[in-house]
Design goal:
The chain is α+β, with helices and mostly antiparallel strands. It has 2 helices and 6 strands. The protein is globular. It starts with 7 loop residues before the first strand and ends in a 13-residue tail after the last helix. InterPro entries: PH-like_dom_sf, PH_domain, PI-Interact_SigTrans_Reg.
Length: 96
């Protein structure tokens, strides 16, 4: 694994974005499209670091470390809920 870098994250309905500075939210260093995410789960054993978790996409696995265990669980829960979108059922006439 490469060296760890401190980043600030913002979760939107469609993206998880990282930024170099807290409060400077214009040009993200990364943006993870939530519709492409396949898994979000604890990664303490993978990284050897407490409070770490991973966000898996088809092309890459992102490893993150939260400031605390409650923060980690909160991030995993919020990201997971954003990944799950209710399906819209359409009848055979094409009407919702």
């Amino acid at each position: 694994m490469k060296e760890w870098r401190r980043r600030w994250f913002v979760l939107t309905p469609q993206y998880l974005c990282s930024f170099k500075s807290q409060g400077e939210y214009r040009n993200p260093t990364e943006h993870i499209r939530l519709a492409e995410c396949t898994t979000v789960k604890s990664a303490d054993e993978d990284t050897g670091k407490e409070n770490s978790f991973r966000v898996d996409t088809p092309g890459r696995v992102f490893y993150l470390i939260a400031d605390s265990s409650p923060d980690k669980e909160s991030w995993i829960g919020h990201i997971g809920r954003q990944m799950v979108r209710p399906a819209v059922l359409v009848d055979d006439q094409g009407f919702e």
